[in-house]
Amino acid sequence: MTTVLIADDQPLQRFGSRMLLESQDDMTVVGEAANGSEAVRLAAELHPDVVLMDIRMPGLDGIEATRRITAAGDRTRILIVTTFDLDEYAYAGLRAGASGFLVKDAQPEELLSGIRAVATGDAVVAPSLTRRLLDAYVHHLPTDSAAETPPQEDPRLASLTDREREILTVIGRGWTNTEIATRFHLAESTVKTHVGRILAKTGSRDRIQAVILAYDTKLVEPT
């Protein structure tokens, strides 16, 4: 059973999401939050598998709430729900530690499959769409020290093998596991093993965070 916390300042949106989720045999809503502060508090108390996180909420917004929840080190994963596709706030949410994002006009099936994917550790956003998002907004957000560090000096990359560094680079370019396997003449199961090791060695929560890491460490430059 996947447990979900809904964080949205609109009661009707929360009600609709709850009705949809509780119609599923494998999901249950464990709480609702009307703002970011409530979301942080309830996530700490309830330890949900997934938080559906709105971005624009009064007081503490969804981005900062995401940052605080993921920084706590719990297993809870965040699925950002935003009004506009390619919204710069969605990019900020991904940098804050979210495992993906969806737009609010997504089909019910997309939301349900997104929750299931996030709960199992997968990324919701397709790698190619993630790259378009990063390319569109990477110059609009403040840079951090990690973004200014040359790849060879970044400690997050120090333990990667040459092959793992190559694979991280193409993950950042939006390649799927199938494309990586074909290009490097590897079995897809081998690629999955490499990806898992990359995530573990770099401390990336999921594939989206690995894409962001590739940008931060300049393995991939915005087009």
TrEMBL record:
It holds the Pfam family GerE. Residues 153-218 form the HTH luxR-type domain. The modification 4-aspartylphosphate is found at residue 54. Keywords: DNA-binding, Phosphoprotein, Transcription, Transcription regulation. GO terms for molecular function: DNA binding. GO terms for biological process: phosphorelay signal transduction system; regulation of DNA-templated transcription. Coiled coil: none annotated. InterPro entries: CheY-like_superfamily, NreC/VraR/RcsB-like_REC, Sig_transdc_resp-reg_C-effctor, Sig_transdc_resp-reg_receiver, Tscrpt_reg_LuxR_C, WalR-like. It comes from the Bacteria. SUPFAM superfamilies: C-terminal effector domain of the bipartite response regulators, CheY-like. Residues 3-119 form the Response regulatory domain. The keyword Transcription applies. This is Two-component system response regulator.
